[in-house]
Structure formats: structure tokens, C-alpha cells
Structures
1.
Amino acid sequence: MQKLKYNGWTNYETWNFKLWADNDEPTYKKVQSLIKEVLNTRGVTICSKSKTDLAVALLSHSLRELAHNEAPELKANFYSDVIMTSIKEVNFDEIAKSLLED
């Protein structure tokens, strides 16, 4: 089954994560901190395709960790399965690329 795009993003889950990353102040601050960490602390300067790819990969990984770390702890049940499945559907590479382009 092919997933449909949602508001220009890969899917609803990706759009929803980016929406919260941009509009929820605590999440926005965490995401901005991750961007600064990727660009400064890790010494990544975006000036070539390979360095851009590295920055996207690093930020994507950090965003995925953020999503997993911020997920509420639920006992194993239907709702915890739905939440974790939804997080797995997020296209973190697409979000990272968009954030680094801004």
C-alpha cells in the first residue's frame, strides 16, 4: 500500500511532527538546540553535498532520538503500539533537510 503525501510532506506523521517542532515552544527550543549542535559542536559546515548529507543524517538521528525520548511511557498495549508505529512512520530525513535549509 502506497502512502499518500500530506500537506506537501511524506505523510501525516511527518507533517504532524514538523508542526509540533515549529509551534510548540519547548519542542521548538529543543529542535533549535539540536540544529546548533549539528552545525557547531560537531563542526559541520554546509558547503558541499557530502557535508550537507552528513548534517542531514546527524540531525535526522537526533530528531528520531528526541521523538523516542519524549514519547510517554505507557504499558504495552494497543495505544503504545500505535504511538510507536506512528513515530516509525516519520520521515526524519525530510524534516532535517527542511530545518537545515531554513
2.
Amino acid sequence: MIVTMLMVNIADAKAKLSEYVDAAARGEQVIICNRNRPVAELRAIEAPRKAPRDLTPMFPGEVFMTDAFFEPMSAAEVEDWEGSVIFPAQVVERRPRYGSSPSRSKRGKARK
């Protein structure tokens, strides 16, 4: 097996990134340099899994999430979880200021 190593400076890597990513995907080693000094390596990641992961519960038929999961926590539970009492944040919506008045030039005259 022949392994090719490419050494490129950052400017070249920025200009031709897709080419270097393709080279890394083919198995070539791409070294990125800063002022001709190696600082990083661009390489392909391991092949993805062939079979999808099993996302079912570990024990079939066992309920691992009850309806209580969707109900809000009490203040005591929140305090235990966060370490302090959390007060609900107040949401204040304001109208946007843009478009409400004519814009002014540097001299203070209104534009038409």
C-alpha cells in the first residue's frame, strides 16, 4: 500500500479545502502547516457503522418512562436539581424600532 503525504500551508488549505478533504477520504495523509511548520493533520474518519443501532429499550416490555416524565417539576425538585430556587423569567416583548421614524443623515436632516 502506497501512502501519499501532502503538506500544505493554511492559505492553500483554505483555497482548496474540498480537494484536500477528497484526498484524505482516499487515505492520503494531509498535513496542514503554519509558515511551513506542521500544526494539524487532516484525515478520514473511521467508516460508519453498517447496521443501524438498536434504539429499543434494553429490556423488552419494560416501561422506562412514565407519564410523570412530561409533568413539570415541583419547586423542591427544581431546587434539588439546580441547587437553588429558580424563578420563572419574565418575557418582555418590544416592538422593533426600525421603520418607525425616518432615518437621519449625519447633519441631522430627515431623508425622504
3.
Amino acid sequence: MMRMQIQLTSEQHRLLKRWAARLGISMSEAVRRCVEEKLSRPEHGMGREELVRQAFLVCEKYSDPEGSSNVARNHDEHLARYYKK
């Protein structure tokens, strides 16, 4: 591991300390997890959890004013089109 020194705002420090305490981890581990989460995201900036959440939102909100639709049959195409926005 590499050792480094960082500066946080008071608010960032408070939130990080609270989060680390809630998880029962050190502040250093909390920073490593935050960095890993940010750097493991795809280029569009969303991690896996956010992608899944967005997919559920699309599925729950889609409705066709014409009535029945082909969402179930063509869900991959609908999701791909949504994420290209």
C-alpha cells in the first residue's frame, strides 16, 4: 500500500467518520472504499447499484399511451436506448 496525506472539509470528515463508525471500519479503509467505488464505475459515471436502480425506474415508469407494449419482449433494446441518453 502507498501512504498519502489528504485534506478534507469539516463536513467531509464528519460524514466519513460517521460512515466508517457505522460500518466498523477505519477511516483509512473508508477512504479506500470510496476511491474504489468511484474508480470502478463505468465511463458514464454510474456504478452497478445505480445502474440496477435506474433500470428498475425505467421498468416501473414505462407506459405506452397506445396500450399494450413490447417492453417485456424487447426490454434489452429499451434499456440500451435509455442509457444512451
